[in-house]
UniProtKB/TrEMBL annotation:
PANTHER family: ALDOSE SUGAR DEHYDROGENASE YLII, HEDGEHOG-INTERACTING PROTEIN. Gene3D superfamilies: TolB, C-terminal domain. Residues 1-22 form the signal peptide. This is PQQ-dependent sugar dehydrogenase. Residues 43-374 form the Glucose/Sorbosone dehydrogenase domain. Keywords: Signal. Pfam families: GSDH.
Length: 378
């Protein structure tokens, strides 16, 4: 068998890519033949990433490192002067996104698990990347998902999205698990999608702004642990991917002021098999567009760019799955999910998919010896 034919695999092994280092494998997908190669290695639990206009990537490592990766996949030394964080449990340095005016301001957004008086919480910070890319400057805490929680170091949420017009920034927060009812409380920022202006202020048109007893930053509520958030490039709608318990992972279409039900309703059960709720739906609570039982444990959420190099992926939604590990492509019909395709399935934990300016996909593999894979057309 020729080397070329030997590399043509219906479902390639990411372990094969890991062993082959710089070599690549070819996979057959519904979008045609794609090349998967190891782009960057030597990372510990990469969690968030964003491409700079010059083609370099900012990537976070959960234990507390932020690095710049060159266009050829070489990771630079850790960037200094990060915001305070606690790397414990599921927490640490989480997501990173560029501000809409990054080209002129060099501003970025970061989310962290941070210790404050009373315990730990999810924090949104802004900072400026220095001109030489070696340190952060003007690091500012913008929003704490209060109140802090003394026990437990899980369910931080922590994913960031910037609106297509650049005017708003969104942050997801988990309900922290110890007191699940926090997700239903409008006086509490846990278990929510939060919305601020690009300047870090509360928009006057947020659904609960001016309502007594409610936090004005809230955009939607009733979420368990949303770790994926992205805007559709075709409709402009906002979507969230949400970890369920034992089963019941969700893809949600986010509308302002709506209640997404957790923990009053759920498609899943507790990890010991006991019932969380006898109801999967209830009046006044928004059902998911799709729920997965058994679980797929979705972390990042991404949409294929409309000018991307992989034409068959344009406008598709991608759920980055932890268990079963892999990448789940969902063909979208407007805001409705259609057929699914499993890619790189049952291998490593996929934390996030990001696309560079040319539209090639970059997959963050979450592991002690983590890496980033590049996916591009042949």
């Amino acid at each position: 068998m020729s080397t070329r034919r030997a590399l043509l695999l219906a479902s390639p092994s990411l372990a094969t890519v890991h062993r082959a280092h710089a070599q690549s494998v070819t996979i057959q997908t519904q979008a045609g033949r794609l090349r998967v190669s190891k782009w960057c290695g030597g990372l510990s639990h990469p969690w968030g990433a964003a491409f700079l206009p010059d083609g370099r990537m900012l990537v976070t490592e959960r234990e507390g490192r932020l690095r710049l990766i060159s266009p050829d996949g070489r990771a630079g030394p850790p960037i200094s002067n990060l915001p305070p964080l606690e790397a414990a449990g599921q927490g640490g340095l989480l997501d990173v996104k560029l501000a809409a005016d990054f080209a002129s301001s060099r501003r970025i957004w970061l989310s962290t698990a941070t210790l404050v008086a009373g315990g730990a919480l999810t924090r949104l910070s802004s900072a400026r990347l220095s001109a030489d890319g070696t340190r952060l400057e003007d690091v500012t805490a913008v929003l704490d998902a209060a109140p802090a929680q003394s026990r437990g170091r899980i369910h931080y949420g922590g994913r960031i999205a910037v609106s297509p017009d650049g005017r708003h920034v969104f942050l997801t927060t988990g309900e922290r698990n110890e007191n699940r009812a926090r997700a239903q409380s409008l006086s509490d920022l846990a278990g929510k999608v939060l919305r601020l202006t690009a300047e870090g202020r509360v928009p006057a048109d947020n659904p609960f702004a001016g309502r007594a007893g409610a936090r004005p930053e809230i955009w939607s509520y009733g979420h368990r642990n949303p770790q994926g958030i992205a805007f559709s490039p075709t409709t402009g709608s906002l979507f969230v991917a949400e970890f369920g318990p034992l089963g019941g992972d969700e893809l949600n279409l986010i509308r302002p002021g709506l209640n997404y039900g957790w923990p009053v309703v759920s498609h899943g059960r507790n990890y010991d098999g006991t019932i969380i709720s006898n109801r999967a739906e209830a009046p006044g609570m928004e059902p998911p567009l799709r729920a997965w039982v058994p679980a797929i444990s979705p972390s990042g959420l991404a949409f294929g760019p409309m000018d991307g190099r992989i034409t068959g992926w344009r406008g598709s939604a991608f759920m980055c799955c932890q268990n079963t590990p892999g990448l789940l492509r969902i063909a979208m019909q407007g805001d409705r999910p259609g057929a699914e395709e499993r890619l790189l399935w049952n291998e490593h934990r996929v934390r996030l998919l990001v696309f560079n300016q040319e539209g090639s996909g970059h997959v963050l593999v979450d592991a002690d010896e983590g890496m980033i894979l590049r996916i591009e057309p042949i």
